[in-house]
């Protein structure tokens, strides 16, 4: 299944108050839209799904969007209405081999992974699906601030996003639709599409009014309190000696009578630490992210791998608690170089040097390390939910 996720954030609504559109207002130190992008990416990773991400912005916000995303997300200029903005994004995906498309509100900053997977699972058998929650409150009709009547709430739902569709079907529906629409489900239904209702989530709120910012802050606090999440990962790596005059260990070049053999620079310590971080995140190993069959990684510096793993941890909401690397070899002597190694590893991972340990041991002349045929390394890392 080839997926695209469209975040629609081109509106200029004023109901949320403030001096700028709600998607650009600050929430816990960063724009609402940044939270939305982060939550979408996190939900996709947690679900084990890959998706092309598109961000639809007001034409005046394109430079701001580029600064926010760093060019990692495709930016689309919005139209005069929401449906026009969505259609611009759908048109941009034509001929891109997209099977399914998810359309999400830019002002919904907390997309749960269960909501995303519920929609995608429904799209396996139906052309359209959208999350919603049943209406539980009594419904009144109002007239001049007085109750003028009631309505039965049976069968009524509060609509949420992302709303998902088979790409070809929703593109055709948009092309045929005349006039504005409050959401893409209405456009899909006007084209005769069968839309499944999947389970929404109370945290998947859409910021609309000023009071919604306080509710969003409360959700963030509750998530942080509930996420006392500490993860542990370990890594192990081995590289054989070959001809050469130096080795690179934990990012430090050390003169030696031999070199280490490997597809990259063969930094056995950094490889073990990188795998420990990936392991703690349940994200496989170096080979999954940087396949040795790919020639672009031939001779690559191992800091590239460690930097990717550390940044992935940050994107998934974790920081380095501590990292411990043990190098197993008879020679070279590690002790004189350990402080420089710890400083370099800390620099790459973006943490304090006091959280990193590098030490060495021998194997008492036993085994391949004892025979000085190579070097082994083991690493342990703890990740703390940030």
Automatic annotation (TrEMBL):
Region (2-C-methyl-D-erythritol 2,4-cyclodiphosphate synthase), start-end ranges: 231-386
Site entry: Positions MEP for the nucleophilic attack: 153, 206
Transmembrane segments: none
Reactions catalysed: 4-CDP-2-C-methyl-D-erythritol 2-phosphate = 2-C-methyl-D-erythritol 2,4-cyclic diphosphate + CMP; 2-C-methyl-D-erythritol 4-phosphate + CTP + H(+) = 4-CDP-2-C-methyl-D-erythritol + diphosphate
Pathway membership, UniProt: Isoprenoid biosynthesis; isopentenyl diphosphate biosynthesis via DXP pathway; isopentenyl diphosphate from 1-deoxy-D-xylulose 5-phosphate: step 2/6; Isoprenoid biosynthesis; isopentenyl diphosphate biosynthesis via DXP pathway; isopentenyl diphosphate from 1-deoxy-D-xylulose 5-phosphate: step 4/6
Sequence ranges assigned to domain 2-C-methyl-D-erythritol 2,4-cyclodiphosphate synthase in this UniProt record: 231-383
Residues that coordinate or bind a divalent metal cation: 237, 239, 271
EC number: 2.7.7.60, 4.6.1.12
PROSITE patterns membership: ISPD, ISPF
Site feature location: Transition state stabilizer: 15, 22, 263, 362
Residues binding 4-CDP-2-C-methyl-D-erythritol 2-phosphate: 237-239, 263-264, 285-287, 361-364, 368, 371
Cofactor(s) in the UniProt record: a divalent metal cation
InterPro entries cross-referenced by the UniProt entry: IspD (IPR001228), IspD/F (IPR026596), IspD/TarI (IPR034683), ISPD_synthase_CS (IPR018294), MECDP_synthase (IPR003526), MECDP_synthase_CS (IPR020555), MECDP_synthase_sf (IPR036571), Nucleotide-diphossugar_trans (IPR029044)
Region of interest (2-C-methyl-D-erythritol 4-phosphate cytidylyltransferase), residue spans: 1-230
A GO molecular function held by the record: 2-C-methyl-D-erythritol 4-phosphate cytidylyltransferase activity
Pfam families, per the entry: IspD, YgbB
Keyword terms, alphabetized: Isoprene biosynthesis, Lyase, Metal-binding, Multifunctional enzyme, Nucleotidyltransferase, Transferase
PANTHER family: 2-C-METHYL-D-ERYTHRITOL 2,4-CYCLODIPHOSPHATE SYNTHASE, CHLOROPLASTIC (PTHR43181)
Family affiliation: In the C-terminal section; belongs to the IspF family.
Alphabetical list of HAMAP family matching this protein: IspD, IspDF, IspF
Described purpose of this protein according to its UniProt entry: Bifunctional enzyme that catalyzes the formation of 4-diphosphocytidyl-2-C-methyl-D-erythritol from CTP and 2-C-methyl-D-erythritol 4-phosphate (MEP) (IspD), and catalyzes the conversion of 4-diphosphocytidyl-2-C-methyl-D-erythritol 2-phosphate (CDP-ME2P) to 2-C-methyl-D-erythritol 2,4-cyclodiphosphate (ME-CPP) with a corresponding release of cytidine 5-monophosphate (CMP) (IspF).
Name this protein carries in UniProt: Bifunctional enzyme IspD/IspF
Source organism: Thioclava litoralis
Gene transcribed to yield this protein: ispDF
